[in-house]
Each structure stands twice: as C-alpha cells, then as structure tokens.
Amino acid sequence: MNLERKCSVTTMGNQDQSPGNSGDDGHSKGQIVENPPQEKVTIETEREETGIDWISELPDALIVQILSQLPIQDAFKTSILSKRWQYPWTSIDNLIFDNRNTNWSDRENVINKFISFTDNVLPLLCCSKIKKFCLYFRFCLVASYSSKIDKWLEIALKNKVEDLDLEIWYYDQNPYVLPQVLCNNSSIVKFNCEFCRIPEECVLNWTSLKSLTLTYLFLRDEHVEQIVKNCPQLESLKLCEFCGFHRLHITSPKCRSLQLIDHAHPDGDWGPFGGDCSFEIVAPYIQHLKISGHFDNVEIRLGDLSSLVHADLTFSVDVVFDKTVELLLSSVRCANELMIPCWFIEMIYVSVLEKKKDVPLLMLKCKQLTINSWISKNAILGIGVLLKSTPYLENLMILHEEGDFFVWDEDLEDEEFDWSGDNFLSLHENIFKGSLQNLKHVEVTSNCCSCQHKADTTERLSEFLKSLLEHAKNLEKLVIAPWHNGCNISSANISKVIKNLLAFPGASNIAVVSLGSVSGVDFSGE
C-alpha cells in the first residue's frame, strides 16, 4: 500500500541560509526567494511500501538534468526542500533569465528583484560548461544596466557557453553595446542576438559558431565581412529587421542556409546609415535561401547562387526597379523548389502588356513552384508566361494568402491594349501550349466567396484549371481548397468548380480532382 508523507517547509525571507546572501551591489539581500516570510508550501511525495522517497533517491546527474528543464527561478526554489536538494540546482547547464512577463505596475521593485536574483545566482553556479544561456531583459533605460549585463555575460562566457540567446529590449535611443569579450569568442556554437549594437571598433571573431541570428541590428560592411571570414564553421545565417551593409559575399562551403527577413532601420542607427538601401548577395554554396517580409525602397541584387535547392523570394516591395523580376528569377534558376510573391506575376503581366506579346523568361530548373497569388484575368497571363519557363515542373501550388492582392484594377481600360482583340485571345489560347508536360500535382487555394470578390472569380478559376487539365497530360492530382476555413459560400462555389472540371474531357485520364486542404511550405532550410 502506498503511503503519503506530507511535510511543511517554511520559505526563507531575508535569512542567512539563502544562497543570495553572498552579497551584491547594494540591492537588498534575500530577494532571491520572493515568497513572504512564514508562508508555507505543502510538498506531497509518494512512498512505496518500502518507504523509499524515490525522487530523492534519483542520481544527482538525473536530478540536474530535470532541473535544467525548469526556469532558473523555479530550479533555485528546490534548494529549500531539504539538505539533499540544497545544491543540485547549482550544477544546471541550461539557464534562462527572463523578465518579460512581469508586472510593470511596480517597475522599480521588479528591476531590483531581477537584478538581485541574477547577481546572486550566477556566481553560485558550478557547472563545468553552460550549454545554453538565455537573457531576456526589458527595461526602459537599458544603458543604465550595461555594466550588469557585461558582468553576467562574462560569467557565462567563462563557463564556455555554447548556445547564447540575448534579447536586450530598449525604449530609448541607446541599445546595449556588445562587449569585446563576447565578440571574440571560441566556445559559442549558436548565437541569437536581438536589439543590440555592434561597436564600430569591435572585431567579430567566433571560431566555433555554426548558427547566427541577428535581429534589429545595424550591420556595416566590415561587420558582414568579419562574420564571413572569421566564422569558418558557420552553417546558417539569419538576419531580421536589419540594414546598413551593401555586400554579402558568403564563400564558405559550410554555410548552406541564408535568411533575410524584413529590412528596417533600428532606432538610433538611422543617422550614420545615410539611407542608401541596396545590397548584393553572392553565395555559391548556399542551398536554402529565404528573403521575406518588407523590403521597401530596397534594391536587392543576387549574384552567384549556383548551389540553390530551395529559394523563397516572398518579400514585398513598394518600388520595383527595372527588370527586377527577370534578374531575380535568373539568379535562382537552378533551385529545385521556388516560392514567389504575387508582384512577380504582376510584373510579368506588365511586361506582356507593354510588349503586346508573350515575354520569354530564362528556363528554370525547379520541380516545385509555389506562387502567392489569386486567379484573375491578368494573373492567368503572368502565371502562364512563368509556367512556360518551367519545363521540369512536377508540383505547382497557387496560394491565396491574406494580404497578397494585385494592385491593378481589372476594370481599368487600357487604351493601348485591346483585351477583346486577337492578341489577347491568342495569348490566352496558347498560354500553356507546349508546357506542363511533367506536371503531376497541383494545389490551389482560392477565395470564391462572392461577398468579398467579384462574381466571375469562380469562372476565372474554372477557365484556368481547365487549361491545366487540357495541357498537363500526366497530371495525377488536383486539390482545390478554400482560402479561409469555415466559409460555406466559398466551399460551395469550389464544389461547383470541381463538378465543371469533372465533366471536362481533360488530357489526363488518371487525374483526381478533390476539395481539400493545401499543404504548407517552408523553405527555411532549418
């Protein structure tokens, strides 16, 4: 029969038994344990018939491993359970110090408690190596605590931290400046840094680094060059909300993944930047490339990307430079999987409109193509031209994602192009002619909800898919899904489209047409 033993443990306030009594910089001692004095915590443990406390009998190494999965504040609190539990927490190697989810009504007290806790706990750690150190620090005047942060990082670096995650949020114009001891380090393998600043005189040198993520940072060309040259083990580079550099030439064969997410100007760094927003990427060994988010008023030039396997170019722009789409597609033509935004299709259509004829593109090698677009009269022309340049295409996905709308107006009458004339009819009749020979799988999301879009949306979709069925002689499966789940109008209209397609004598006798959900796509390479 199992017996239950209940023991009451009185938590410590400002007593000498607390490890926090080692001293700090003037903050009140004993704030590590935040429960008020004399508050009682009931601990229930189960005993087998032998009377053994199985949890306390676990090996020290296993207890430490369990405690490493807890936030550092919770792991520390186990020290009050008994003498057996007084010190195991000091050996944990996964440390997370986080003040993001705190009550800011008593801001000064919150700051003092967090700093006191961190100051007192870090020196007590005795692990030989820290596997992961996370510091999520959000205060209004970060600059006032820079020396504290330097001290904490110095302790982590002395313990040869391998995975370092810093999020030092600031509300003023003075972000936290990374210290030289961090910028020149041989133990860090993975580094994620947000809202910090790299000093101009600093030399970046991470000899063991394999994964680097920098968010909301101003990066000079010399910083990027140092990352490329002084991080010989680098395999993955991710830059988010960045600006500053003009050249990103990655020549290391080990670096296979590159992600650029959003172009932004960090507060306090816009002045020295000067506003010249353009950069060139040359990365002959990169296999996974992702450029997404907002790149307004930015000119992106892609050079040698001859090893590409996955290319996600779903970034948005407000200004399109001359021949941007043609040049970008030419640079990623060797990718096996390609994902593009709706404005690529728009620019291809504009080229057709200007030249009044089909616009040939360089042949792409991709076998899987994902287009963020919705089906319209204009989009069909742009998609058709693109598909003619993908002779190896096997899988096609057309995703109507929220926020991706064409900027043109279909009711706009163009004086130079006769939409009812022979030129347009010829383009439409021959849109897929000679292409789609290898296409096997098509997935389409469409908003056929008449309450939001024009009544001819369903008709446009039917025409487009009939053209696919007619020319894709080896098509095996066609999946049509509503843009947003739960819309009965959209589902009903798509069902009508499917019935029309089933009655259409397509070229493929084995094609399966169904209403379903479209699989997600992620080309991040991680």
UniProtKB/TrEMBL annotation:
Residues spanning the membrane: none
Span of domain F-box: 52-107
Biased composition (Polar residues): 8-21
InterPro entries the UniProt entry points to: F-box-like_dom_sf, F-box_AtFBL13-like, F-box_dom, FBL13/AtMIF1-like, LRR_dom_sf, LRR_FXL15/At3g58940/PEG3-like
Sequence segments annotated as region (Disordered): 1-43
SUPFAM superfamilies with a match to the protein in the record: F-box domain, RNI-like
Protein's recorded name: F-box domain-containing protein
Organism lineage string: Eukaryota, Viridiplantae, Streptophyta, Embryophyta, Tracheophyta
